[in-house]
Structure formats: structure tokens, C-alpha cells
Automatic annotation (TrEMBL):
Keywords annotated in UniProt: Signal, Transport
Protein purpose: Part of a binding-protein-dependent transport system for aliphatic sulfonates. Putative binding protein.
Protein name: Putative aliphatic sulfonates-binding protein
Family: Belongs to the bacterial solute-binding protein SsuA/TauA family.
Record's keyword annotation contains Signal: yes
Statement: the UniProt record of this protein carries the keyword rRNA-binding: no
One of the Pfam families matching this protein, by short name: NMT1_2
Membrane-crossing residue ranges in chain numbering: none
Annotated signal sequence range: 1-19
Amino acid sequence: MIPFRRLAAALLATSGLLAASAIDAARAETIRVAVGTQDTTINCATGGLLIRELKLLEKFLPRDGRYKDVTYDIQWRNFTSGAPLTNEMVAGKLDLGAMADFPGSLNGAAFAKAGRRSLFISVLSGSVRGSGNGVVVPTASPVQSFADLKGKTISVPFASTAHGLLLRAVKAQGWDPERDVTIITQAPEVAGSALKANKIEAHADFVPFAELFPWRGIARKIYDGSQADAPTFHGALADAAYAERYPEIVTAYLRAAIEADRLIAAEPETYSELIERVTGIEAEVAYLFHGPLGLQTRDLTWKPEYRQALKTSIETLKLLKKADGDIDVDRFVDDRFIRAASAQAGIDYAARLSDYAQSPLSAPDAAGRPIADVSRVAELWVKGEGKVRPYASPEAALAALADLEKAGGSARVVYAQDRNSGIKLFAAQAWYVRDRERRLSAFLLKGDAEDFARAHGGEVIDFAAARAGEARLSAR
């Protein structure tokens, strides 16, 4: 029989342990990490889709110090545009979100109207020249350039980055936006059907629709944002109160974005395929953006041009009466968290900040030739191959395509770089100049090709003629 004193002591000890456990349980905190994504806006991929699908946030969330016994409630919400994402953030249902510069400015304005603040914490992808937004026309349209759109009706998602681009393009032509063109609002999912049915004369849109519609054969791109030479970007935002309360979590989110960026840079084909599986947006389109020498540059640093893009978007939104009052960009942009995440990843943020290079293309090319001029690079994605083949010139890529098809193979897609702007193009929709030495140079616009031919000599041809010429040479 256990003596009474020993039994009492044991009971006290047990009750003490139970009480301690109850206190620890009470102390254990559940922290929500709610992230709004735009999966189909594929330039947000490193701030949303890839982090979610590869479970990178779980890998980097803090688990020591004040976070030692924390339970994380990770929530993901996907949106087709920035406006509803912002509504959820302002309503307190999301802590972080990814969107472009124009909707990001509206995010800041909406928070301010509610008496609160949001922070633009990082860039994810962008172009200091403006590439990524664009204008398309129906495939059979006679329009070859933006100048041909005077008197036409152009649709665009209102208050989007593409809307800002469209207004700048109209202004650059010296047109009156109220008299010389008719601008109507139209969401991309509606515009696609309208273009296919020839119900609209032109459509301006953001990533990836100015490339997606041409890829699907329902439109031609006749204007790229780089022609406006106005910076544009997509980035990540945070509720300021959440960021101040949990700065380590916001840093962890950006650390996950840095890892997603590293992975897609190393294997753009693999993760372009993942983007297609999740969104339905073809891998060929995703690679156009995220592959080497891509249409935009994945860039997590706050370059002066991107800060200026925010200022421009705020001014434009005020002009459109979509935002009231000013937003202090220097206060809205907060680079503390991306600097901290970069340091954790061993990245020299200052060096990245001064680096404007496109994602590099390794040399030599698939034929063993050195790549001396990236403005003449072309690429071939062969069906059944996991890696895209780079070539030093369009004629080399088309010769390889001819040999491939003679052997019974086929290509998923051929890419070329615009000789003037350096942007990546779907080669099948480009114009070419074949010079006296039979070298090919690719251009988005027929007018640019004609100007180049006049200045340097040569003939202007389309993709079919360029292919046929290289096929004849290959057959000799």
C-alpha cells in the first residue's frame, strides 16, 4: 500500500505537470499566413503559384525564438485580377498578395481610404522598358501598327496596367483619347472571344494575354509595351500592421520567393510545364516570359524605374478618377523585408539592384557555335525534349527545324529575339529581313523590318518564307 504522504505528493506533481501543460498550450499561438495569388498572371508565379505548389513557404517560416511553438495556418486564395484580391486584403482576410503596379497602387489607395496602410514589399518580375503589356488585333486585321488604330475601338481592362499603357500610346501618337479612338472596358476572358469573332478592332492587355491570344491563333500582336518605354512590374504587398507584428514571416515569404526565382531560372522548362498544369496557360507562353532572354526579367529589387512606375500609375489612376489623393511612394515601398530575405539567401542586394541584365542564355548554342549577338538568338523547343535548344541565329534554328522535320520530328515552338528591342518573340508571328549574306533578323513589326531593310539592305519576308528558304538550303 502506498503511504498517504507519497500518494499526495504524486498527485500534486501530476497536477503541476498538467497545469504546466495547460499553460504551454495556452501560450502556443496559431498564426495565419493568408496569401492572395494571381495564378494566370504568370509573372506573379514566384510570389504565389510556385511557392504554393512546391511548399516553399513551409520550408522558410521561422520556427525558433518567439515562433518556437507556433502553429501556422497557411491559406491560399487565387484571383483573376488585383481588384478582388485588394478587397480581401482590406477586409482583413489576406495578409499578403501579388499584383502589378497599377492594381498595387489601388491597393495602397484602398488601404488609405480605410484608415490603414499596405506596403509594397518586393518586385517579382518586370521590364524597365515596359514590355509585358501589349496590344493585339484579330488575326485577319489589316492593322500592322498602333498608328493604324486611329478612329478604331480598343478594349482594355479599365484601371489595369494595360490601361495606363494604352493611354500613353494614344498620347504618344498625339491623339485625343476622347475623339480619335474609342476606349471601352473589357476583361481578358471576354476579349478573347471577341477577338476570335472579330467583334472588336483591337485589345490592350497585361501579362500574359498579349502573348497568349497570338499563341492560340486568335490575334496578332501589333504593339509591345517596350515601345512606350515606360517601366512596368508585378510585385508583392503586405498588410502593414501584419508586417510590423510578424516581420520574420514576411521575410520568410520573400525568402520563399527568392527560392522560387532560383528554381525557375535553373529549370525554366520544368516550371513552365508546372504553370501550364496549374493554370492551363501553355508552357510555351510561360517560357516566353520566364526563359532566358525572356520578355520580362524576374527581378526582386526595387530599381528606381519601378519606383517611378508606381508614381506614374498613381498619377494615371487619379486622372481616371480611380484613386483619391496622393500615395507617398517612398513610404509605400518598403524594401526592409526583401533586403533581409536576400541576406538570408546569401544574395548581394546592392549588386542585384544595379544589375539590369536579362536572364542569361548559356553558350555555346545547340550546334556548338558561340552566341556572340543575343539580338539574333533563336530557340527551338522540340516535341519530346525537356530542354529548349538555343541557336546563335534564326537561320541556324530554322535549318535545324528543317532537318528535324525531315527526320520525322517536330517543334512545339520556335522563338526569336526582336533585333531592335531584344524582346523574345514567337518566331511564327515575326517579320524577318534576309540580308545579302542570307542572314535573318527578326522583328515584331513589319514597319521595323522595312526600316531595317532600307537602312542595311535585304528583303522583308514572313516566317513561312524564312522557313522555306532555310529548308531549300538544308535540302542541298
